Amino acid sequence: MLLDRLLRLLLKPRDRDTIAGDLLEEYREVVLPARGRVRAQLWYLRQALSVIDGVTLGLALGLAFGIWNLIITWLAPLADDTPSALLAFYGPMLAGWGIGAFIAARRSGRVADAIRVGTTIGFVTIVVFYAACLVRVNLFLNTIWLRSDWQNLVLRFHASGSESLRTFANYEYVKGTPLMLGLGCVFGAGMGFTGGVAARMSLLVSRTWRRKP
């Protein structure tokens, strides 16, 4: 199963046979026959996310979105970053942070844990993703500098007197690193709070239903 292989990649070597093996066994022998394939896979995904720490999940998300960004640029290097395109790209990233925080709060029952996990995932995701953005700039600079959303940077380059657009673009990206990391923490904390509140509400609803005769 694909989810099992992904989980094993994200777990520490000593945990791959114990955690992943036990989870896969329960999925096949108990959950799948009782819930069907779709609901069983959702159960497996939730359980898998619950055993992955925030740093590892952030690394996985940052790598996934970094590669996705490189592929998009390779396929359509002149496509502008329109609001709808940005929403389609960053929306799933933010959702991933919120889901990780939601699961952390479901496990502990504390919104503070969700905020901590969301902040961690957001920070690590942006570290890896921004590194991939630097790779993207250097791989596709000869094309992407013609995009309309790059023209402001190109104008600043001409005004700076710098001799190399590549050097100037890399400098601008590196200079913006603290801001991007800060935004990762802020949005990560925000999604953590949202996920934590949603988890607390779901726990209250579950307890209410259990108390009903």
Task: Describe the structure in your own words.
By secondary structure, this protein is mainly α. The protein folds into 2 domains: 1-52, no CATH class; 53-211, no CATH class. Helix content is 87%, strand content 0%. The chain has helices spanning 2-10, 13-35, 37-51, 54-75, 83-108, 111-144, 151-160, 165-175, 177-211. α4 (54-75) runs parallel beside α6 and α5 packs across α9 (177-211). The chain is elongated, with a radius of gyration of 21 Å.
> How many individual β-strands?
0
Distance between the termini: 40 Å
Percent of residues in beta strands: under 5%
- What is the overall number of helices? 9
Name the average pLDDT.
87
Kindly name the structural category.
mainly alpha
Secondary structure blueprint with pairings:
Elements (H helix, E strand, L loop, with lengths): L1 H9 L2 H23 L1 H15 L2 H22 L7 H26 L2 H34 L6 H10 L4 H11 L1 H35 L2
Helix pairs in contact: 1-2, 2-3, 4-5, 4-6, 5-6, 5-9, 6-8, 6-9
What's this entry about, in short?
With 213 residues, the chain is mostly helical. The chain is 87% helix and 0% strand. The chain has helices at 2-10, 13-35, 37-51, 54-75, 83-108, 111-144, 151-160, 165-175, 177-211.
Keywords, separated by commas or semicolons:
single chain; 213 residues; mainly alpha; 2 domains; 9 helices; elongated
